[in-house]
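Saturday, quiet lab. Running sequence design on the structure tokens for the scaffold JK sent over.
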């Protein structure tokens, strides 16, 4: 029987694909820096219509901390959970980036369609029903704007470099 205290992380099979939309938040902020040690995505390989499920790294850490405090009895027989998230399209992510960080930051996104990445991403699940996780008290941001604000606060010291 699996342990309720074990967390498994499964690495992606294609390194570029998982970074497709993560980079929409981090890369536009880092492209103008003289030194950037990690660049997730420099170019956007998928169309604006692509839909994904998101949570900030802050929420992911919160998931782990909250899970550590749950008892086996609270989890029940099924110890695996689908975590809550924010579902939005790439276009909605870009609109949120414009609202929160401004047009100048969002203008740094470069489109570079890639059929292979688009086919991979097309097979990913899009919407989830995290009823059990929510009932157990897991929380997540309310919007993609909130995810961007968390990135600015946690990764950029609360400042946007225009």
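Result came back. Writing it out in full:
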């Amino acid at each position: 029987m699996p342990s309720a205290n074990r967390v498994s992380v499964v690495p992606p099979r294609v390194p570029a694909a998982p970074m497709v939309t993560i980079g929409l938040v981090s890369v536009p902020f880092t492209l103008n820096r003289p030194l950037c040690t990690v660049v997730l995505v420099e170019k956007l390989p998928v169309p604006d219509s692509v839909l994904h499920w998101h949570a900030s790294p802050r929420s992911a850490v919160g998931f782990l901390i909250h899970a550590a405090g749950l008892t086996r009895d609270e989890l029940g027989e099924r110890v695996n959970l689908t975590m809550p998230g924010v579902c939005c399209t790439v276009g909605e992510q870009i609109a949120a980036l414009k609202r929160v960080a401004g047009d100048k930051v969002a203008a740094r996104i470069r489109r570079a369609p890639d059929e292979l990445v688009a086919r991979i991403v097309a097979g990913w699940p899009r919407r989830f029903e995290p009823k059990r996780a929510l009932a157990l008290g897991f929380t997540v941001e309310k919007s993609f704007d909130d995810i961007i604000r968390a990135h600015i606060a946690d990764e950029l010291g609360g400042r946007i470099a225009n």
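Notes for JK: DSSP finds eight helices and four strands in the chain. Residues 56 and 62 are 10 Å apart (CA to CA). Ask whether to fix the surface positions before the next round.
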